């Protein structure tokens, strides 16, 4: 195995005396084969790219979508709702979330309808 791509949750980090940091991630359930592949990487030196899912580039989203992974066991609809919530939370909207969600969903539905030939 030369590459590990999997959805994760950044669980914790711990600074160490030598100024390095121990980072812990949590994944969804893995098959015995996937665990074996993961085990084969123990002790390997590599590069970690971790980005919150709402900050991914189009190319990164395409690569992830081709893997057909479920993040944390959530459906795509649940992930969309959670993402809309994060947008609402970070923009400081004065509209309550229920109305913000309804407005954003109607906007997405309108865009999809526009694509119908």
Overview of the molecule:
The chain has 2 domains: 1-69, no CATH class; 74-117, no CATH class. It contains 4 helices and 2 strands; from the N terminus they run ββαααα. The longest helix has 18 residues, at 97-114. It is 45% helix and 13% strand. It has a two-stranded antiparallel ribbon with strand order 1-2. The mean pLDDT is 83. With 117 residues, the chain is an alpha+beta fold. The chain has helices at residues 32-40, 58-67, 76-91, 97-114; strands spanning 8-15, 21-27. A hairpin with a 5-residue loop joins β1 and β2 (21-27). α3 crosses α4 (97-114).
Features:
117 residues; two-stranded antiparallel sheet; 2 strands; extended
Order of helices and strands: EEHHHH
Determine the strand fraction and express it as a percent band. Answer: 5-15%
What is the terminal separation in angstroms?
Answer: 44 Å
How many structural units, i.e. domains?
2
Structural class estimated from helices and strands: alpha+beta
| Spatial strand arrangement across the major sheet | 1-2
Protein topology:
Layout: E1 8-15, E2 21-27, H1 32-40, H2 58-67, H3 76-91, H4 97-114
Helix pairs in contact: 3-4
Write a concise synopsis of the structure shown.
The chain has helices spanning 32-40, 58-67, 76-91, 97-114; strands at residues 8-15, 21-27. With 117 residues, the protein is of the alpha+beta class.
